[in-house]
Amino acid sequence: MDKKEKERRKQFLNELRQKQQQEFENSLPMDRSSFEKLFDFLDAQLENKGCDHSHTITLEFLENHKIQHIDTVLKWLAENGGYCDCEILANVEELF
């Protein structure tokens, strides 16, 4: 494989990564900063309260921050491995 071919493949992979990142961003049911605040809130609350294997803490955050379409957010979280508060931190946060 020559230098030109390597460069072409590298460019293709960069474009593919950018496309995947954009698709991920477009799939978010709320803005990225709200997710980051949610993760920080969960981290602090779970340290104190522990996880009851529900979305209790997440619901508290979403309601307090007046997030619209809470059901859509919870569905998206579950589709991405966040079946409860602790799994949101374990599985969903790493996507960001």
Task: Describe the protein in words.
The chain is mainly α. The chain is built from 5 helices and no strands. Helix 2 crosses helix 3 and helix 2 crosses helix 5. 15% of the residues are buried.
Topology readout:
Layout (H helix, E strand, L loop, with lengths): L2 H25 L4 H18 L6 H9 L5 H10 L5 H8 L4
List keywords for this structure.
96 residues, mainly alpha, 73% helix
What's this, in brief?
The protein is mainly alpha-helical and 96 residues long. Helix content is 73%, strand content 0%.
Percentage of residues in DSSP E strands? under 5%
Helicity level:
over 70%
Major pleated sheet: none
Structural class category: mainly alpha
**Overall radius of gyration:** 17 Å
pLDDT < 50 stretches: none
Tally of DSSP β-strands: 0
Question: What average pLDDT do the residues reach?
Answer: 95
Termini distance?
Answer: 35 Å
**Helix/strand order, N-terminal first:** HHHHH
Shape: elongated
Please, how many helices? Answer: 5
